[in-house]
Specification:
Elements lengths: L18 E6 L8 H10 L4 E6 L7 H17 L16 H12 L3 E2 L10
Parallel strand pairs: 1-2, 2-3
Length: 119
């Protein structure tokens, strides 16, 4: 593969970090000063994806409240986070709806486990 500049990109090793998942403590009800400082240092160097860890310890209302608080603090501190691109107008409606829901889910709330339970 050669692009218009004639560079052979197959032999170029890219060691940059392109994306960082930033896990946020669910018990803090928002960002801690260290979170803000850390993200401010890195937001212009890497795409930051904020994630609320251990969200299974929260109720749905608590998840919504902490998401609102985190987004408010991110905006207040002028921290740039990764923005999921909008769907193009020519995409099918299912994809557009899925994209919209994904964009509205930031910061993501995740549950991690290494055990499978049958209920």
């Amino acid at each position: 593969y050669k692009d218009e500049s004639g560079l052979n990109r197959r032999n170029i090793s890219d060691n940059r970090v392109h994306c960082m998942f930033y896990f946020i403590n669910p018990n803090g009800h928002g960002l801690k000063p260290l979170d803000v400082q850390f993200m401010k240092e890195l937001h212009d160097k890497v795409n930051i994806v904020p994630i609320i860890a251990k969200s299974d310890t929260l109720t749905m209302k608590e998840v919504a409240d902490i998401k609102k608080a985190i987004l408010g603090e991110i905006e207040e501190n002028h921290i740039n986070i990764y923005k999921i691109p909008s769907a193009d107008a020519d995409e099918d409606e299912d994809y557009k709806e899925q994209n919209k829901k994904l964009r509205e889910s930031v910061p993501f709330a995740v549950v991690g486990s290494n055990t499978v339970m049958d209920v």
